[in-house]
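Interim report, section 4.2 (structural modelling).
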Amino acid sequence: MNNVMGLINLHENTVKLDALTQTRPLAAVPFGSKYRMIDFALSNMVNSGVHNVGILIPEHSGALIQHLRAGKDWDLDRKHEGLFLLIPTPRTPLAGTGDVDYYSQHLDYLLDAKQEYVILSASQFLCNLNYGLALEYHQKSKADATLIYRRLGSNETRPSDAVMLSLDDDRFITDMEIAPPQSKSRNLYMSMAITGRKLLIDVITNAMSRGGGDYVRQLQANLKNLRLNAWEFTGYTANISDVREYYRHHMALLNQAVWRDLFFRNGHIYTKVKDSVPTKYLSEAKVENSILANSCQINGSVKNSVLFRSVHVAKGAVVKNSIIMQYSYIGSGARLENAICDKDVEITPGRSLKGDPLYPLVIKKGTVV
Amino acid sequence: MQKPSCIAMLLAGGQGSRLGGLTRNIAKPAVPFGGKYRIIDFALSNCYNSGVYTVGVLTQYQPLELHRYIGIGSPWDLDRQHGGVYILPPYAREGGADWYKGTADALYQNIKFVDSMNPDHVAVLSGDHVYKMDYAQMLSFHIKKNADVTIAVINVDIKEANRFGIMCADRDGRITAFAEKPKNPQSTLASMGVYIFHWQVLRRYLIEDSQNMKSSHDFGKDIIPRMLLKKEKLFAYPFEGYWRDVGTVESYWQASMDLLGDDYAFDLYSPDWIISSENLALPPHYISKEGRVVKSLVSEACVVHGSVENSILFPSVTVEEGAVVKNSVIMAESRISMGAVVERAIIGYKVFVMQKQKILPDGPDDIVLHFSGGEKLDEG
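Predicted structure of the assembly:
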């Protein structure tokens, strides 16, 4: 994979997770009890042997940059190549709209790179995949770009912002629909693609000379001029398109098969390490069907829930079907059901809060209830 | 860069033979402890938290795992351009090679290293104690008393006093008598194996001791008694807090149990004195519907379907349905299979406890060390 670089585009403006994305970009949203969303995209690159990774950083990314730092936790703190944080500059009047402008702001990075191929990714699709297989497929098929997709399950509804791909028998793309009201296709584009570095530069500069736009729309517009094919990923994928999906995929993590697939399939998911302590269960602890990160202290009841690091559940407290983020404190006798507590939330003793599984209650960062 | 007022020399070469199977392949300071740590984490974290940023680690016995673990010191933020951690194993020189023949000899052989750092004071520490201590406070005591050596002391039970170096001190803290493991202890002030020396004074005694063929080259047995005899200024620095020498299976097990329960004796959670260690990239742990965990510590990537009480699970331990783990310590990546019972035991790394296997102590005070048996696991 020495011949491949990575480019992660975090200008994912379509996805909003209510209060969870009020203070941070989607990529910095905590996920899976100790990670942030970006960890999956970044770890997949690193686990596939990519060691030149640029990240297009969105605005308001304080938390994200503190998380990534110099890339040490992903072994990307290197003298040569490694991690590049591509900070946006204010848009010029000529910039047009769409993410191509952000790519073009950092064209030098792409021009200077030595790699022949680029893996493009966003952070919205969480999975544990090996790009090596997709790259091999891309090279053999001699396509200009290979888009990675997954098949929607039979009961699965199509997200409103979905990009759907229609394929011929050789998996070449015959049609692309962006956020269609209805579609016959079940092939959901995962915002991941492999393409040639030089071709990417061409697509970006051409688009910029015609008013910008989104990269995916450039592909759509050039469907006839470019050879675009698709590669299917069959592992577990969490598409975090809204709060309900965010909640649903956390509850899915309680299934051991999903836990293993997402955390071990092709390698470990790396994240910023902390000096955590093993989680402490006290004498009144009653925990079932839950996943917990380190440094929690549990003396109450926890059921069907996901607890992040350093969460306290006091004696007599009941946490059910909930997601509790770092440093939150559930006071004695408090009850919480179908809730998502952002970081540093305190539920004072005796309080009772309840959402619905289809409409979980989101409690804002730092709230004292 | 300012020259350091005090550097630390960490004695980490001991075999720890009283820990049995725990130290068969690794040095005592590298023995896992507390569900995530290695014993040496406590001394190294104390150094960092105390502002002692230059630490020489003297290694000898089974150093492979210990050297790998310490690396360039990054888990303790000791990977520095100036100072940081230095691994100091015995080495060959013109005219031959010597093992470290004792704790004092280990330091004697590294006089050049200490000189190159040019400190005023040297803290001599052990890599096999579990405690949190601010060496900076001890250093200011040492400087205020204008001491040649300051020895940290802790009050122990008179019945246990014969296991320690015991000293008598006057009202000012000046040490008047010292006896290593005395049969009839005259006091309950026990040495914690934490010393701060005035370097130039220690340097003189190390050279003198190296020429004494009768000496066992040990700090407690030779250097301290000699300094006392020569009427140097020895002071006792009283330490209050939790401190355990985990040199035996019993004390290791007891110190592990001290982390558990509602009234735990030793607190790892307070944010003002963090114990750092290697952090593995592992996912959270999972407790199933049938799982039951009380009064225990559980680390990342564990999967618990059985019952765990008053025990410590290191990372990636699996406890299957119907298995019972009680008053035990289970090291990383071990598996307790269906229906197995483990009580008052220390289960080693990657051990496979078979279905319905019983690992129980012979007597009520015994502790079982279980480091093999069953099939070793091939995968993590």
